[in-house]
Specification:
Blueprint lengths: L3 E5 L6 H9 L17 E7 L2 E7 L11 H14 L2 E7 L6 H11 L4 E7 L21 E3 L8 H10 L13 E6 L6 H9 L17 E7 L2 E7 L12 H15 L3 E7 L6 H12 L4 E6 L10 H12 L8 E3 L11 H12 L5 H14 L12 E8 L4 E6 L7 H15 L7 E6 L2
Parallel strand pairs: 1-3, 1-4, 4-5, 5-6, 7-9, 7-10, 10-11, 11-12, 14-15
Antiparallel strand pairs: 2-3, 8-9, 13-14
Helix pairs in contact: 2-6, 10-11
């Protein structure tokens, strides 16, 4: 698992600007209006070849501002998840009661806290920086998110405090997690797969609080299954146990080779299901959608097709995910999961020879030339695969601003069609050729 770094602070001190500066792209919304960021925003970043997850959070303040309860709950989860915390303060203002309030929150956690004093580019406010030594976290790191000053020194310090990688080898096998809202039958599906009652099954929503790993073999293939607690809505995670359950579920998704999203056929798809699905998209994970309790549904003509159509309408961002209908209770169709898990795992790690990839991409380009967009026409020179898990491709062009999103989707579909990236997302990175 990659280390995690949480960015915390009061509103409008530049947390999202720092997040974007570290990533090198505008992912978080930034604005001079306090309170723009409410939920946690995750992205993968790297510094000096060290990869990590960076988490942007909403601004905490003492006063009863809108959404403060929800924001504080999200920040607390980010703090619990993080290995290192960047506490952002504003050099242009003296230390505030909100800064002290956040500092008291951070005193309670045994995590490395690094204080980044933002907006030091204005010399007339620079002396204010020294006030923040009173927060009690030791050395201060002056930065300017606007001009990039001090970001390298800050990140040098951050990566010093990452945990040492575990030298112990993880158990081999295809690792997959079962995720979903509470009471969709995840634990029953674990039991059906393992063919024995190793986990408690209950009709009471929220029985499973921890992520549980179990290894097993099926037709000589090794698997590790991770059961997880049901993910609740963002507004329903104020209890400590629910916060820890969400953290463990997210960790399970991160360390999975394949994520199985479990839906409940008896209740249909609800908003909470799509919320869970967004975590899978966020971490670019392969996905198989399982419709459980199919035995409880009254079957009519095209019942299965109609249900799948509803899935496609509500999970457009998981359009690569196959759908399996089964019953954990009766074990009907459970065996259909295994070949899908194997195909997905292979696709997630697949590498394509550059010459073969170029043939496909250039042929696709010549068969369907892009339209004039944003002041010019896109020209593709060559493509190469630059990563796996998920498969990631760099496509070198004359100017990436000429790329229309529909043409990007067209190229993605052509690559999928030719190389069978079953159930896995693929990433296309368009780069200007020097």
């Amino acid at each position: 698992m990659l280390p995690k770094v949480a960015i915390v602070g009061r509103p409008n001190v530049g947390k999202s600007s720092l997040f974007n500066r570290i990533l090198g792209e505008r992912l978080s919304i930034t604005d001079d209006t306090p309170g723009v960021t409410r939920d946690r925003i995750y992205a993968k970043a790297s510094w000096l070849s060290q990869e990590f997850y960076i988490i942007d959070t909403g601004g905490i303040e003492i006063q009863d501002a809108p959404f403060q309860v929800e924001i504080k709950a999200q920040v607390e989860i980010a703090i619990e998840e993080a290995d290192v915390i960047i506490f952002v303060v504003d050099c242009r203002s003296q230390m505030t009661d909100d800064d002290e309030f956040i500092a008291k929150m951070l005193y309670k956690v045994k995590k490395e806290v690094i204080v980044a004093v933002n907006k030091v580019d204005d010399q007339k406010y620079k002396d204010n920086m020294y006030d923040f030594y009173a927060l009690g976290f030791g050395e201060l790191y002056p930065i300017s998110t606007q001009h990039g000053i001090g970001i390298g020194d800050l990140l040098d310090e951050v990566i010093k405090h990452f945990p040492n990688k575990d030298d112990a080898k993880e158990e081999e096998g295809i690792k997959f997690s079962l995720v979903g809202r509470p009471n969709v039958g995840k634990s029953s599906l674990v039991n059906a797969i393992l063919n024995e009652k190793r986990v408690i099954v209950s009709n009471i929503a929220g029985t499973t609080r921890d992520a549980i790993d179990e290894s097993f073999t099926y037709l000589d293939d090794k698997y590790i299954i991770i059961d997880t607690a049901g993910l609740k809505k963002r507004g329903k995670i104020y209890e400590n146990l629910d916060k820890y359950a969400q953290i463990r579920t997210i960790d399970a998704i991160i360390r999975s080779d394949v994520v199985v999203l479990v839906l409940d056929a008896s209740t249909g798809i609800i908003e909470q299901d799509t919320h869970v699905g967004q975590y899978i998209e966020m971490y670019n994970k392969p996905c198989i959608i399982v419709v459980n309790k199919w035995d409880t549904v009254k079957k009519e003509t095209n019942t299965m097709q109609e249900f799948e159509k509803d899935i496609r309408d509500k999970f457009k961002y998981l359009d690569y995910a196959p759908v399996v209908f089964l019953s954990a209770l009766t074990k009907a169709r459970v065996q259909t999961l295994y070949p899908m898990l194997k195909l997905t795992y292979e696709a997630y790690r697949r590498r394509i020879q550059t010459s073969v990839l170029n043939d496909v991409v250039i042929d696709a380009y010549q068969m369907n030339l892009p339209s004039f967009f944003n002041g010019g026409k896109l020209k593709i020179y060559y493509a190469t695969q630059v990563g796996v898990e998920p498969p990631t491709f760099a496509i070198f062009v004359n100017d990436e601003t000429y790329l229309h999103f529909s043409y990007k989707r067209y190229l993605e579909n052509q690559i999928r069609k030719n190389f069978d990236f079953f159930a896995t997302p693929i990433k296309l990175e368009f780069r200007r050729r020097d």
